Amino acid sequence: MSSIDLRKKLVGFTLEKKQLIGVTARVGIVLDITGSMRNLYNNGTVQEIVERILAVACEFDDNGSLDVWVYDTEFSRLPPVTERELGRYVFTHIINNKHIHKFGRNNEPPVMEDIIKKYTEEEDDTTPVLIIFINDGGVVKPTQKVIRAASVLPIFWQFVGIGDSDFEVLKGLDTMQGRLVDNASFIHLDRIDTVSDEELYDQLLNEFPLWLKAAKAKRILRD
Q1: DSSP string of 112-138?
Q2: How does pLDDT run across 38-91, given as a tens digit for each residue?
Q3: How far apart are CA 145 and CA 139, in angstroms?
């Protein structure tokens, strides 16, 4: 069994555990490409992260694709990744892509606004969206304003902090006021490469079921 097939099986177990069997969702990943992330791109960690999250996308949506963004001070919306293109996706579409702005500083709101634009303006689809946002610190405070405004939309933001930053802005998401529903969560995985797939999927999907229930109650999502 290939690594992606094994991971899809583990995601399936997690969906059953979280009572998410039968739920359809579109999945996107946002990859921090600021200067402090350079080594994680070069040593294959980011490629591994993409494969691990692709398994989630495959189990939630039968189109078997994961939408991808990268960002530092600028952002790029990249081609979706599928099992067929997975092998050297990060090298081909990110590291070796001359058109991507790389290894600058943080600026989250522009990429978040593009995500909102894609799922609420460009595509006429009411399917819930799960965005997995990989970041190693330095998130700018206006990010909270975007999250607050987006609480009326069918998008759940799962932030994943990696490394040893203090993640001050992201730690405040779970208690942030002024939202129709709690539409964002933060988990910290200091060394994501040492976290097992089982633990990763368990943490990634811990808050998503609660948001689905709340979003349906507020008619952000329709049954």
Answers
A1: HHHHHHIIIIIS-----EEEEEEE-S-
A2: 999 999 999 999 999 999 999 998 789 999 999 999 999 999 999 988 989 999
A3: 12
Give the model confidence (pLDDT) of 112-140 as tens digits: 999 999 999 999 788 999 999 999 999 99
Output the pTM of the full model: 0.97
What residues contact residue 116 under an 8 Å CB cut-off, 6+ apart?
Answer: 146, 150, 153, 155
Dump the DSSP string for the chain. Answer: --HHHHHHHHHHHHHHHTT-TT---EEEEEEE-SGGGHHHHHTTHHHHHHHHHHHHHHHH-TT-EEEEEEESSSEEEEEEEETTT-TTHHIIIIIT-TTS--S----HHHHHHHHHHIIIIIS-----EEEEEEE-S---THHHHHHHHGGGSSEEEEEEEESS---HHHHTGGG--S-SS--EEEEEETTGGGS-HHHHHHHHTSSHHHHHHHHHHTTSS--
Q: How far apart are CA 177 and CA 120, in angstroms?
A: 23
The reported pLDDT for the residue numbered 222 is 84
